[in-house]
Design a protein that fits this description.
Length: 263
Amino acid sequence: MEKKKIFFVILLIIIVVATTMFLLWRRNLDADNSLSNVKKRGVLVVGGDAPYGVMEFFNEDNEIDGIDVDIAREIASRLGVRLEFNDYDWDQLFLKVKNDEIDLAASSITITPERQKEMLFSTSYFNGGQVIVVRSGNQDIGGVNDLVGIKIAVQEGTTGYDEAKKYTQENLIFPYLNFDDSGIINDLENEKFEAIIVDYVQALSMIKVYSGLKIVGTPFTREDYGLVTKIGNNTLMQEINSIILNMEKEGTLKKIEIKWSAF
């Protein structure tokens, strides 16, 4: 009999604690006005760091344009508000998110476990992983399996270098300090090597400037980009995630990508 009493007392305590925790959770959730604040204000304030290839750059009218901007604009439209997209230095961007000075950061931000401890990320909206760039007339390379034993150019200290070592010998890899000048392009055109492994955004910038190049297929590694907000802005991010998933399902994300990658 005494054991039954103890059992019911313990059960009652568990129920009271669980109920209290649930009520506290609900109160914290209700206190999150991040979504309602944006709708009440009528403006979604977004920050980015331009330029970065086709993701964000200044157009002829000196306005920020590109994939990140179009995605932010579509999200704002579906929230029923207008978009305010501001340019900041990369070092300022995350601080402005944490200080609640901007609602979102949209700047090709790779989702990493370290960053997720400091900021709240959306679901991935773009894969900026590694791709293969070859001369336009090259019909021999159709994917990574065709890289075996051929000469490949990469940027030193990058994921591209690590990927190249999976497919060809070390002595057939040509490391470049950076891809910011035309040297690597000239070397590819002059057949010093057969392919370049580089991240997708940089590859898009290459083929935009040099018509004699093409990208083979789609990214063969993952580097997921996400939108970022302050930790605690759960209602805003839940709504944004729903919008991103719908945009992906409808093909809107792909249309935006194609718009800025069809040169």
